[in-house]
Amino acid sequence: MKQITLENLHCTKTEDWTGADECRLEVYNDGELHFAYRQDLNDDQDWALNASLLFSSSCALRLFDEDGDFPGDDDDALGVASIGTTDVDHATVTFREDDADYTLTYSVVDRPDITQSDLATFAIDQFEASTAPSMWPGLDKAQIIADLRERRWNPTSINQVNSNFCGPTSITYELARTQPRRYVDLVRQLFETGGFWSRTHRVDAPESLRATQAGQNMKPADWMLIATMRNNENAVFGVSPTSTGVQSMIEGMTTPWEMEGWTSELLLKDNVSNSTTFVWGEFDAIRYAHQVWSSGGNAFVMVHSDIFSAPNGIVPPWPDHWIVYAGGLDESGGRIKFTVYSWGQIYNLDLSLDHFENCMFGIVTGF
Fold this sequence. Notes:
There is one protein chain. The protein has helices at 119-129, 141-153, 166-178, 180-193, 207-210, 220-233, 245-252, 256-265, 282-294, 353-359, and strands at 2-13, 21-29, 32-41, 45-55, 59-65, 76-83, 88-95, 101-110, 195-197, 202-204, 272-276, 298-303, 321-325, 335-342, 345-352, 360-366. The chain is α+β, with helices and mostly antiparallel strands.
C-alpha cells in the first residue's frame, strides 16, 4: 500500500480574471473518488493541505475552478496529474490549463503495514485521532467511532429502528457495504464540518439538526448521516428526533427520484434508472434487479411492508417501504424467493406469486 501526502498547493496565477479561484482538488485513488478538497486561492497564495491518503496502484488529481450553478457557466478544469507508486519526497506537479498556473507539492511513501482490506479501518483510526472540533455537540465521538468499527465489518447493523427513514437507510447500508472507506469519510466530514460533499454538491445539516442527540432510538453514526440525508431532501418538514405517527411518516417519505439522486450522488453510479410496477411488470423488475446486483450494482425495491408477513386481507395499493435487493432470486415451485436487507437484518423472502405482485411497486437501480 502507498500513502500520498498532499503538502501544499501554490497559486502562481488564477484562472479568473479578477479575484480568487474557488479551487476544488479531487483525489481519485485506484479509480475511486476518495476526497474533494476546497479552498479559495488568489495569485501568490499557498494552501497547506497536509492531507494523507492511501492507494494501491494509482492516484489521480484533478483541479477545478468552481464557477457555480448558472447555466452555461460550468466549472473550469485546470489540469489532471497522475501519481505513480514510486516513493518521492516533496515532488511537484503543475496544473496549467485555461491560463491558470498552480503547483502542488506532495510525497509518496510505502506503507507495508497496511493492506487493501484495512483502508476503511485506517480511515476510522485517522478520524479517531483527529483533533478537529465536533459540529454535533449532542453526539459522543467515541460512540460514533465504535459504531463505525461495527459497521466496517457488519454493515447490516445499520438500522432505522423507530424512524421512517427506510430510503436513506438503504442507501447508507449499500454505501457501507460496497464503499466502506467512502462511508467513513462522509461520516467524518459530517461530524467535523457539519456537512459532506456528494458527487456534485455539498449536503449540510442545519444547526437545529446538529444540536440534537441521536433520535428515533438510532445509533449516533446512523442518525447523523441518515437524518442529514433525509432533512436535506425535505422541502417543508425538517427532521425531528422525537416525531411519531403521521408527522414521522411525512418526514421520512422517500420518492423513487430521491433514491435515484442518492444512488448517483452518494453511491457514485453513472447508470441509474427507476421503474415503477404499480400496474404490471413486477417479475421483469425483480429479474432486472437481480441482473444489476449480480453485476456488482445496487438495486432498491419499493414495496408495501406487508411483504414481510403472511397474506392477511388486502394489501393497500401503495408502497410504504424501501428494501435493498441482496440476491438469491428463485422462481421455481410456483413461488418467488429472494434475499433483502431491511431494519438491520437480512431477510430470506419466500412469497406466493400473488402476494409478491400485491406488495411490489418498483425498483431503482444503479451500476
